[in-house]
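Researcher: Next entry in the queue.
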Amino acid sequence: MDKVAFEGINFELSADQKALQKMARDFTAREITPQAEHFDRTAEFPLEIVKKGQQIGLVNLSLPEAYGGPGATVLDECIVAEELAYGCSGISTAMSVNNLSALPLQIGGTEVQKAYWLGERMAEKGELAAYCVTEPGAGSNVAGIQTRAERVGDHYVVNGSKTFISNVNYASFYTVFAVTDPGKQHRGISCFIIERNTPGITVSKHFDKLGQRAADTAEITFENVEVPAENRIGDEGQGFALAMQVFDHSRPGVAAGAVGVARRAMEESIKYAKERETFGQPIWQHQAIGHKIADMAINIEAARLLVWQAAWLVDHGVRNPKVVAFAKAFAADMAMKVTIDAVQVFGGYGYMKEYPVEKLMRDVKVFQIYEGTSEIQRNIIVRELFR
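Model: Structure for this entry, 387 residues:
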């Protein structure tokens, strides 16, 4: 049959995207999957793997070409995120935080700021950064942050703390959201770049987490930290709007990571269900198991399509927080169920650390929590439906 040229919807990846996918898949098979159990057990930070990822262009994906980055699209990031998370979503998180940290600068930074922080510091020197929004009393409620940045002459004095921050012990600088005008509520939040070695900064030890143990997660405290006014991103009061734009760009990639974990759980289940026999036949031939794995496949495919749709909208400049929320909530909840079902397919062995599915179940839980909980995604969907 002759090929028909279709206009409009196209589900085929380009040749470049297929090559990127293969590179990420090969890197994962070579560098991540074989070491995932070690980093889960020790909770060490996979710095050498991150550096290897930098060398071949799998870190700093979103940095524009003008500043020395690969200039990847959000869809490109999603393709890579799925492949890396397939091997270990903790290591994938460690490799992807720079993309998140760079977004405030990419969206609201000046050319001078972009050239220095994105170009010289991240692309040329290969430095890591951290994204600091969440606080002990303000997670999903970004407008409720209490960290204060008070203007004093040509600088700001920052006081407060942030928690559950990824890569914070290994970052050279941070993008930090703080209140500059308490009387204006969410319109009084601003965003700043703060150097790691600035006096007054204290970083706690690595949190001991349920899953994604390879990803460094810690608390950071600011005590009378002086930040040059030139390190403010955008105007005063633009921080909340900037954070919301960042979420639109970052959530598809997070959702893609959930798809990657779910795909790994399904493939492990298929492999095991072929080998394990009960009542004289491989367990996949029992309808209870076969249908469970069929449901995994259906939902993984549906989640990936939602993720790619959300990424496509962002890449084409179409702001649609509802579709982004669809992707984030569905992928996170789907992956949680798939990994739980994978443990069930393995039976008693699924509960043992000798097999990978218990780790996948622990790792994936956080996808329902970070970058906006599944409940927050539903709040966004309700808001958009009834707008």
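Model: The longest strand covers residues 155-166.
Researcher: Noted, moving on.
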